């Protein structure tokens, strides 16, 4: 019997997954946004690609709030400059307070 499709991840679930993964890696390591999309879609075989735009939007919100850093070529960039290949990491202040 086939599994029913997973419910689409809402903005709160996406933000929570970004924070969970970046916190688990710590402020010295980063994650790829596709890792968040894959986790929410149930793995590589799940429909994760449509989640990429919502993951990027949620990352921008979290960066504006100071919860994460968006990295481009290894350097923090403001959400407005987010384009192309990016990585996400816990903001140093957020990681030290355990948020």
Automatic annotation (TrEMBL):
Pfam families: DUF3253. It comes from the Bacteria. SUPFAM superfamilies: Winged helix' DNA-binding domain. Gene3D superfamilies: Winged helix-like DNA-binding domain superfamily/Winged helix DNA-binding domain. This is DUF3253 domain-containing protein. It comes from Craurococcus roseus. The lineage of its organism: Bacteria, Pseudomonadati, Pseudomonadota, Alphaproteobacteria, Acetobacterales.
């Amino acid at each position: 019997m086939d599994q029913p499709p997973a419910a689409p991840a809402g903005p709160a679930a996406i933000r929570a997954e970004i924070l969970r993964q970046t916190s688990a890696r710590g402020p010295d390591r980063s994650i790829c946004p596709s890792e968040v999309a894959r986790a929410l879609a149930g793995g590589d075989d799940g429909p994760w690609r449509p989640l990429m735009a919502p993951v990027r939007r949620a990352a921008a919100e979290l960066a504006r709030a100071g919860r994460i850093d968006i990295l481009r070529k290894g350097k923090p960039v403001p959400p407005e400059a987010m384009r192309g290949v990016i990585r996400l990491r816990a903001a140093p202040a957020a990681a030290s307070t355990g948020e």
